[in-house]
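Collaborator request, handled under Task 6.
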Amino acid sequence: MKASPSRHRFIARPQAAALLLCALFGMAGAASAKEAEPAAKPQPPRSAAEILAQSPASDWQALDLENTLQMDLPQGPVVITLATRFAPRHSANIRALVRGGYFDGLAILRVQDGFVTQWGDPNGSAAERARPLPAEASAKLPAEFSAALAGLPFTPLKETDGWAPVNGYVDAFPVGADPKTGRAWLAHCYGMVGAGRGNEADSSTGSSLYAVIGHAPRALDLNITTVGRVLKGIEHLSSLPRGGANMGFYDKPAQGLGIQRVRMLADMPEAERPALELLRPDSATFAALQDARRNRTGWSVYNPGRIELCTGLPPTRAADATRRSP
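Structure tokens returned to the collaborator:
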């Protein structure tokens, strides 16, 4: 006797139910096994040194040879890059002074502890004995205390301070800015270079220069034309004997260290030219570096979670020794 279709359907249902239960138990078992797997350990944060060592070459930029100079002192070379976006007239005048040999044989005039090292003509205040400016250099320049913020390749810093509504970096330089006025200016951080002036705001020519060798004197911002930054050799300026009680000026001209010569890098033989490059402030490496500086690990016991404009400057490195491919 043939089994009825209904009987076959009745027998098939428990088989399907068994298959479904097996599938469900299999899925549950797989899920349990997956949950039982140990979670991957979080990677420790990279140090600043590791971030720089692993950075691609594309995050670095070569020096502007036409706007970087080398001042040779008995202790060693001092390399200074000029801030052409902020002080174009002073930068052009300094180039003319350098190429005219103006600084060669002049001297360090002043070393004030915790403040600045200044150099120029020891006889600059005596018109009859002062060294004449080269014909290509100007004896009168406008003050260049600030520049238009619009159009600058400005990389903002999230931290603010009392010296500027906004802080950040342009090229190799620390910058304060005020979006309300649309102005930006160079900050007096350690290693920054300014043009000495008299009482008149427009009395600087770049013939007398100083470098900050102490805590950032930010009260000078917007009061003096800042013309550049020391990229290499700041130790040769900061370790000099301190001057006298008159703001660090040397009492006797013989105390001042002689400047051997000053050259623009573009005019130097390639074999003598310093091979340096700067970290681009708009790069991913710089952003990672700033985070590492904010969140210090290892030796640090207390983590402040912040940085200052002057402690976050884009670093310089030797190009040949550490260049890496992207």
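The cover message to the collaborator said: "Confidence is low (pLDDT under 50) at residues 1-12, 16-25, 322-326. The domain at 48-322 is CATH 2.40.100.10 (Cyclophilin). Please let us know whether this matches your experimental observations."
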